[in-house]
Structure formats: structure tokens, C-alpha cells
Input
Amino acid sequence: MTSFRIKNYGKVNRKKAISFKWENKKYYGYEGDSLASALLANNIKIVGRSFKYHRPRGIMSCGVEESGGLVTIGSYDKRDPNVRATTQELYQGLTAYGQNAFPNVNFDLGEINNYLSRFFAAGFYYKTFMGIPPFEWGTGTSIWMVFEKFIRKAAGMGKLSTLPDPDNYEHAHDFCDVLIVGSGPAGIAAAKEAADKKLDVILVEQDSLLGGDQLGDRVFNVDEVYSELKNLNIRILSKTTAFGLYDNCVMGLLEKVTDHKAEVNDSLPRQRFWTIRAKHIIIGSGSLERHIAFNNNDVPGVMTVNASKHYLNRYGVLTGKNIVISTNNDSAYKTAESLYNAGAKVTVLDVRQDISLPPIFKDKIPVRFQTVPYNINGSRKIKSIDLATITDSSYKKIDTIICDQVLLSGGWSPVVHLLSHRGSSPTWNIDNLCFLPGNTKENISIIGAARGIWNREECIKSGIAGALDAMNKMGLTKTNYFFPKEGGWKNPIHPLYEVKHKKLISKSFVDYQHDVTTDDIRLAHREGFESVEHLKRYTTLGMANDQGKMGNIIAISLMADLLDKKISEVGTTVFRPPYTPIAIGALAGRHVGKHFRPLRVTPMHQWNLDNGAVMIEAGLYQRPWYFPKKNETLTDSYIREATIVRKSVGMCDVTSLGKISIQGIDSTEFINRIYANPFAKLPINKTRYGIMLRDDGIVMDDGTSWRLSENEYLMTTSTAQAGKVMSWLEELLQTRWTDLKVNVTSVSEQWAAVAISGPKSRDVIKSCVENSILIENLPFMGFVSTKLIDGIPCRIVRISFSGELGYEIYIESDYANTMMNLLWREVKKFNGCLYGLEALGALRVEKGHVTGAELDGRVTIEDAGLGKMASSKKSYVGSAMRKRGVLNSLEREQLVGFFPINKKHTFGAGTIVCEKNSIKGFGVGRITSVTHSPELGHWIGIGFVKGGKERWKNITLIGSDPVRNKQMELKVVSPHMIDPEGKRMHV
Amino acid sequence: MIRIKCPYCGERDHSEFTYGGDASIRYPALDASREDWTQAIFFRENIRGFQKETWHHLNGCRMWLEIERSTVTHEIKSVKPCHPDLQKIMDSKK
Ligand SMILES: [Zn+2]
Output
């Protein structure tokens, strides 16, 4: 192949040369070039190596179906492998490399595989897993382990950068009446018609230019079309691929925003991931030309016919000087003429009988009927082609002609993918030898070549019909219209999928990317693979980057042949999104790093930071973890904080707790049904700890509820379950207990909350409020609505999570800082401290209080040791089911405390508790929370063990921590390790 | 993406909602037998075709909705509030 730029052709801007690097060498192209056209213009033939055999591969198409020209763009953290050179726009400074070759695509050591090809036949991987006959070195996973590292190194196309993706991606959303995919003649006609009828239209084109197949015309004015559509207020999204069609006309699209730019403005995303919700979808996605399987049909210089016309008329590149075209249909003749007129020597091989043709094909362009390509001679470039004719049912070589390019047209396949995503199977059309889109009841219309219409005028008519169809289906009109019939060639297409070589093992490729040959298909069949879905997975046919856009039909026809079935009976594999590959980064959009999930902060977040807090994530919340003094580690700090709380006083931000306001005349009845604990007689101004169960009797959450007045409560939930509990209360009120007059409102954001704990907490609070008598008299579990000394209203509840005398103050969020300043001033007077989540945890583990680590959705109220709190006098959610047999087994794990036998030993949460002689499996229990106990002076934990504390009296258990590779001896104790009678909090 | 016509908010993406469960289940009284509760909690029809389900408009109006949806095609036949009094109000507005 000798390809080169020629004068007076193409739509590239010849006034603007662009330099780029291919395999570290500098070349020039023009503005408007694709990387493929620029490579061809520079006569670069080999652009990559194939997957298994490392055979040289060149450019084979001019679009998304490309199987040969897969390259790597950029380097370092911007390295992007498997980019189709055909769809990559050229830009100044672009650097590209060939793939799958060492040291380079022109001289590749991996080419040895070509000669070992019989070891790499269909099912290579599967056979490797199962042992390699005749030696049977090993079977199954063991041999796989041995070979994995070699195979992994050799497999895969291109190499990903392992560095973080430096680019930004963006998610965008939009709505429209009609979304039209494809800006070919049909799509443009549909867009104009729909816009004319005052519909809001979005037109999507994956190419950088509008026009579709018209870009391959000698004369086509893109700008004119563009401004015409713009004047009709049609919204145009170019460089945008509609990759997936979902329910209710929701389309997923990927817009390449800066992939084609030399210099990137940081404010722009690399790609934009669109979700567009349309009322109607019109698909004018066109069709793709197929190739033909014959021996050595992959030598660089083999290309689809229409691609060559596009290179000529769009890019001004003539792809060969001496061109052989092989076809089975009429579409190739126009290209033959164009190439001839541009100066190439052209010979046409037509598998069909003599057909009537314009005079040029007698005088200037020789046409050989009933002739097919048999074999290409040459490996790195085409030297000549052997021709064959059909005798009886086999092919006979008749001639050899010198050429430098072979163009193939084995028919056209409508791009039925998007409709296929909706579960509509394409159907085989025998007259046009292609799968046509199936039926759908959804608001989707198919137009143009995507519905198998080959004639341009008819395509335009189908576009208009599509717009009318949309109007009707949207219920706006009841117009009569019809879609033109599929087809449109003068002479019928003739089947030509494979020209079978008489050689036993030929290299007739079906899937160029995965090196699947026609022999592989036959081998798979011999080995019993009869369904196309199995065939696909066994041979890896159509599973590469191009997803079989060029070759799948050939494989299906071969399979039909082998099974003695019709292609319509064999069917095609299911197409799934995405139509073309999508970067993971685009799916993630802005949800990366710190923006992976929303960030929640409490109103005193800054106050905490200003006062030295180190933060930790608790669910979505940022909560103070610990408040280190100079040089203090986490451990130093939390031990100091917990010690001070027990000795004097500490304060801790507890705002993240869920808070729900419950109001209405049936509030008491409602709350009494939700909690297992009795709530019916809770007095006003008292609060109570409550546990709520799920329907199935397992604990859902715990918290406190305060009775504010006769018919109003404030419920608190755990931080983690706040959202779930809110939804649950809404569900109960709206779906089950619809007679209850109750309203629930989340007030989590309205209230800031701080816990003041320790023997000095009462003194602190007394000096912070207007009326200290109220605090003096406040009983355990009582609360008051009162005012801080600066007149700010607040609620103060006497409650204890630490086991010490303790209070929580709730205040409107806006006053959080004022409250903190006020309290902190007083706390400091008692040499108190600020404490964080780690100390909070230490204090509650010492007391054996459960949190989410214990109430993990598997634990019953009995397991948690709280069974006595459950009312036996009322029914509540879960009361029926908590008594079912399996939940009352004595074998169940129950909450206990753990001490190390050797007081110097530590252990971690997640440690499995085992019997001494049986350190395996799930053991007999597990440790859920651990801490150093400042009061006891050694490590402690709480968790669960089968049968509870009594079962393991005086028995030493083993804590096994295989993850941290640790073992230690344990003693089971009561979970209430400090002040079990609760004297301290009742002072 | 299923689009759900919330009676309060209009047509929205299903990602704004959470799926609840089988809307045809009538949960027994709290003091009903364990057998009745077992039936209500654990036994479900595996319907091919239209089924009634509850959905919560979590990131919208927070109403619980009863939706008739095809498990085959995702086609939605009807959407109404779960609460019968709210249903009546909706009906009277029609
Ligand atoms: Zn809503």
C-alpha cells in the first residue's frame, strides 16, 4: 500500500499544518485530520500488532468499527490505550504509539506467536485452565497459577496508566422532545421536520462533523448544514456518542470535550457524561460495512470499501495506487469510480453474475464477475492478491494480480445496537443479508440505513417519516405516513462471508482484534459450542474493543452453515451498552476523591477544628476524633481525654445523631408501637432509652425519645441509622397505620448537640444557664427547656453514654458556636477537656454500651443483653417475630466483655474468638469493639460469644486475628466493666 | 432509568426513589400470630408481569407511593399515594 495526500480533494484545512509524533517520530497532518488519515497521508502502514499472533495491523476502516488501528495516545498519567486512530482527531503535539508490540510495531518479537498459532486456537484460555494435553502438566487452577503471570503479560491490548487519572469529567443532564441519534441524511431530515413542527430537538453526532455518510461525498458543505440546523433552534451535540438506550427514552451519552485539543483549559472536563431524558428517540445510527474472510485478509492495506472513499473525499488521502475492490453488492462501485477519478488503478471483483454497469466499468475499470479474493501475498504489506472463482461448492484459484491495496465490501450491517439495548432482538433480512432492528412498543423510531435503507433519497424520506412517527407516538398528531422499504440497490446482494482456503489451517480472520479465524469457529463447533452466545465466549469473538462490529455476521453465517441452519435461526448475540468504550472516569464524573460522597459537617465543625480537633469520617459526617495536645498520638490523646471525663469533665460534639420531631394526637400510641420498651406512660419532660426492632425481630436502632408535651416527642437515632429510621417511620404512617394522626419531621439539621460528661458536668452547666436551680433539680433522664446565660433558648437533658454524670445540651444550630464558647470557658475552669469519638468509644466500651458495631442487623434484643427492657405488656413492631425459635436458641451469641489474660496483650475489633483446641472457622464468638481502658489500665473489648458469659466462666478462650496475624488468650467478663450498678451517673 | 410520575412532584428519575416492597402485602396487627407475621414478612410471589410495589420518593416529597410496574418491561401502569386518604384527595381532583 502506498497512501498519500492528493490535491483538490478533502475537507481538511491545508493552510493549517499540525505536527504530531508517531512512535517518537515527528510527522505532519492538517487541521481536520483524524490520526488515521494523518498516518495514511504519511504512508504509515503498520499501526499495531494483533492480540494473539502479533501480526502487523493497519487502518481498516474510518470509524468506530475500527479493528486494526488501535493505538495508545499520550504518556505518563495521560496514557490512554486502545484509542481508535480513526476517530481520534489530530491536534498539535499529539503523541501516539502502536500497541501490543515489543520493541515496536515494525519489529515485534511477539510475532513468534504467529508460528505457534495452533497453541492459541479457540478456547485457548479454557484449555489452559484444564491442563495442556498431551502432557497434562497439571490441571485446573494449579497450572493456571503457573502460567498466569506469563499470560497476563502477553494478554490485553495496550497498557493502562496505573497513575491516578489527572483529568476532570463531568455529569450533565438534559431534556428534550425528540433526541435524534446520527446526523446522516436521515437524521438531518428528521431533525428539520421535527423542528419545523415546533418540537424541541437534540441532534447527536459521534463524529466531530455533521453529515454522516455525506462526509464521504466529494462535495458536501458541513458549515451550511450546521447553520441551517442552528437556525431551526436544533440543539447539536457533536463528538457525542449515544452509547446506551435505557427505559423511558433515557439516553446515556458521552461527549468528548477536550480529547481533540492540544491545550486544555483546566476548567473544562475531558469528557462529559450526559443523561438525556427525551419524549421520543429517533435512531439514525447508520450502518457499517462488513469485510470478507479469506486467507491473510488482515495484511496492512486491507480496508472496507467505503472507508477508502471517506479518506479520499474527507481527508484528501488516496489510500492506494493500485487497488483491488472485492464486493458482493452495488455499494462498492461508486467508490471504485471515485478512486479511479482520483488517479488510482482500480480492479473490481464481484462475486455476482454479470450485472449492468455504467460504461466506465467497461472502458476504464475492469470488473471481474464471479470472482473472489482467495489469498493475499505479503505479510507487512500487500504484494499481490490471488483470485478465485467458484466451482461446484469450492473455490479455485484462477489468477494473481499485483496490487497495493485490497478493499472489501461483504455487505452492510445496520447499527441496531441502541434498540437492542431495549431488549428488542434484531431479525435477519434475507434480501439484504443483514440484521434489521426488531419491533418495539416504546417511543422509538428507526430511520435511514439503520433500518436497512441504502438509497439516500429514501433515507431522507425515512427521516421525515421518523419525525411524523414521533409526533404520532407522542400523541400530538395522527398523521398518515410510511417508512420506505429497506434495501434500494439495483442488483441484489449475494452472500459472501468466507472464501475457504484449501489449506487446512488458514489465517482467515473474522475478528481482527482478538485474532479469531474462521478455523477457530469451526473448531469451536467441533468441540460442541452451538449457541452464538457460547461461541462468542469460547472463541472471544466480538469481545474486543470493537465488539465485533465488523466481523460478527461472518461468524454467525459460518455457525449457521455448520449447524445446517438459517442465519435467522442462529440469531445474533445480545448487544449491551456501551456502544463504544467509556472511560471509568467519565462514569465517576466529579464523584472522585473527597467528592466521592457528600460531606456533612456539624454547625460547630470549624469551632472543633479551631480547638485542635483531628477529624474522622463517621458515615457522611466529619466528627472530632481526638484533640491532641503537643506531640500526643491518638492513643495518648484519647486516654487522656477519657481519664479527664471520668475524673472531672469533658465536652463532645454529638450533633450528628439523628433527630426526628414526632407530633400529633396519636404520637404516644405511635411511639409505643415503634419501640420495644414501654413508652405509653413516659411523663412530660422525661426522656427514655428505646430500642426499635425490625418486623423480623432483629434490632434496627436505638436512641432516646423525649416527651416535649402531651402530643409531641423528640426522637434521637444513631448517626448511621438516622435516614433509615426516618424512612421507616414514614412508611409505617403512610402505608400501615394510616389511621394514626401523627406527623414526623427530620430536625437533625436544626439542632446542634453537645455532651457534657463527668462528675463536674453539673457544675459546668449550672454556671452556663439562667436558672441553675433547674439543673440542680434535674433528675436522671429528665430534661428542661431553658435558656443559656446569654438568653439563648436550649434544651438540656440529663443523660449518660459515658457512665458518668452527664448532660446533653441541644440548641438551634446557628447558636452552636456561642454555646461551645460558653461551655468551654466553664469546662476549662475544672481542668476539663474536649473529647472526640475515640474517647467517646473508650468510655462506652468500658460501660458495655452497644452501638452500630454491635447492632449490625444480625443481633436480637436478647443477644445485646437488653431483653429485660422489652415490654411484655404490649405489642410492638417485631414483638411477634422476636420470639421465634431460632432467635431464642441458647446457642446464639450474646453480648459479653473480653479481657486479655496477659494484661499487656492487645487485640483488635474483628478478632475471632475460639476455643483453645479449635482455632478455626467462625469460632465461638467475635470481638466488635475494643479500647484501652484508662480506668482498668489494660485492653478491653466487647463482642459476642455463644451462650453468653455463664457458658465460659473460668474458661480461657483464644482470640484469633488472622488478618493482623495475632493470637492472644482471653477471658469472658460482663460487658459492664466499670460501675456496673450505675452509681456514678445517678449522683 | 425508569421514570416515575410522582403525583406530587411530576416525572422524576427512579434514582430519586427507593424501592420499598410488595404493595399487595397487608401486614397483620402487631398482636397477630407468628404464623401470620411469617407469611407477611418472608413469603413473596415472584410475579412475571405487573405487580404492585411501594416506592419512597426519598429525594423528593418523601411520600410513599403505590406503583403498578411490569417486572418484564418496567412499564408503569399507575402511581398513587399509599395512604388511602391521600388517594381519595387525588381521585377527587381528577
Ligand atoms: Zn414526589
Notes: The mean pLDDT of chain B is 95. Strands of chain B lie at 3-6, 10-13, 18-22, 50-56, 64-70, 76-81. DSSP finds two helices and six strands in chain B. The radius of gyration of chain B is 14 Å.
